Amino acid sequence: MIKAEVQKKLDIFNEVWFFLTEDLESSTENFERYKYLIDQL
Known about the structure:
The chain is mostly helical. The chain is 83% helix and 0% strand. It is elongated and about 35 Å long.
């Protein structure tokens, strides 16, 4: 069960990292998504 939680956090982190490293077109929209992902951690 702990492994699943760690995997979930890792997936979220990877998604956040993706958003941070991409050249974003709609920064406001992506920032909202970014904040949501951080809240999930």
